[in-house]
Design brief:
32% of the residues lie in helices and 28% in strands. It has helices spanning 49-56, 98-106, 115-121, 137-149, 167-182, 194-200, 218-224, 270-279, 294-308, 316-319, 321-329, and strands at residues 11-20, 23-33, 38-42, 64-69, 83-86, 155-159, 186-191, 203-208, 211-217, 228-235, 248-255, 260-267, 285-291. A hairpin with a 2-residue loop joins strand 8 and strand 9 (211-217). The chain is globular, with a radius of gyration of 23 Å. It binds adenosine-5'-triphosphate. The site of adenosine-5'-triphosphate has 11 residues, from strand 2 and helix 1.
């Protein structure tokens, strides 16, 4: 990277609240991101992720609290020189070719990437002469993310970068982002795809109901909820309710062959659960105990936040433990 390395945090959000009428989109949120981090903002629809990015990129002002970008006010153009963003939806001039659009954007920066570099990072060399109006939705999305990097920004903000991409395109884009991060950039992305956050982010910030529910390394966020996943096979004839045994949090079963069922139990205490299985004389086989996934941690964290919120009840999908297990094992 050619841009000088900043000294303080790349972005610093302190006690920020932002309302839209009666909706509190962000409620006393604080977040610091240091140079070189790769941060995933994870949260359900309406959690406040886009609002947070809009404050950081100077599109909106907080009602209270402070937002600093490279130490300055993000509403000053000079603070945004080192920033590259891709919003959720992007408009591209339809009659320009891919190469021309890259050149057009590059013209706004002092030290841009060359056409060839941008297109090769994103595997788009073959599309250089195509008019953007003729690109598929996924190709447009890929180009939009590529354009965010043309000016060699020190910080890249990506709002759901791979929405609408097929698996292969998603992997190309992930690799491009990893490479760019390895070159020294700071990357903050929002995503609904847990797989995306697991694949990319070193630090995971779980946002729900306008608040930060967890902010730590991927492993720590998963470890935070303390859930374990216990897998076991039980004869179909057995009537024992595994979810009701001590140590269990929720359970879900799939029929194997009509004679047996494969259970997935989310356990708050796997040791207690396995001891109670034995104590209850359950004729189980094929026992496996694993750590929870990010998805399980995420569902448990957002369910907890809903339980403590004063607001209207959350959707049953998040509240119902059986459903939680069902979602978690898919
Ligand atoms: N311009 C606006 N006017 C009114 N309400 C808004 C506006 N922008 C956001 N909101 C509300 O603020 C809350 C947070 O929205 P935001 O778009 O930040 O969530 P998000 O986490 O990005 O969601 P998604 O994952 O669906 O993009 C939501 O309840 C949303 O309806």
């Amino acid at each position: 990277m050619t841009a000088p390395t900043p000294t303080g945090p790349v972005l610093d959000v302190q006690h920020v609240t932002r309302r839209f009428g009666a909706v509190t989109a962000l409620d006393d949120v604080s977040l610091r991101v240091e140079h070189g981090e790769l941060v995933g903002l994870l949260g359900p629809n309406g959690a406040g992720k886009t609002t947070l990015l809009s404050l950081v990129s100077g599109l909106r002002r907080p009602d209270s609290g402070t937002v600093r970008l490279f130490g300055g006010d993000p509403r000053d153009a000079s603070s945004r020189i080192g920033l590259g963003t891709t919003p959720q939806e992007t408009g591209l001039p339809p009659t320009l070719t891919v190469g021309e659009v890259v050149d057009l954007v590059a013209g706004h920066y002092p030290d841009p990437m060359s056409r060839a570099e941008v297109l090769s990072r994103f595997g788009m060399q073959d599309l250089v002469k195509r008019q953007t109006g003729g690109l598929s939705g996924g190709q447009k999305r890929r180009l939009a993310v590529a354009l965010a990097l043309v000016g060699r920004p020190r910080l890249v903000l990506l709002d759901e970068p791979t929405t609408g991409l097929d698996v292969e395109a998603r992997h190309v884009l992930w690799q491009a982002l990893r490479d760019y991060h390895a070159d020294g950039a700071t990357v903050v992305l929002t995503s609904h795809y847990l797989e995306e956050v697991e694949a990319l982010a070193e630090r995971v910030v779980v946002v729900g109901g306008g608040r930060i529910l967890a902010d730590d390394s991927l492993d720590a966020v998963v470890g935070l909820v303390g859930l374990r996943r216990v897998l076991l096979t039980v004869p179909a004839a057995s009537t024992v309710d595994l979810a009701a045994l001590p140590g269990a949090h929720a359970a879900h079963a799939d029929d194997l062959d009509g004679r047996a069922r494969r259970w997935t139990v989310l356990a708050e205490d796997a040791d207690v659960f396995v001891r109670s299985l034995v104590g209850a004389d359950v004729p189980f086989s094929g026992l496996e105990v694993r750590g929870a996934s990010l998805e399980e941690a995420f569902l448990a964290l957002t369910a907890r936040a809903d339980d403590t919120a004063d607001a209207a009840p959350a959707p049953a999908a998040v509240h119902d433990p059986a459903r939680l297990a069902e979602e978690a094992v898919r």
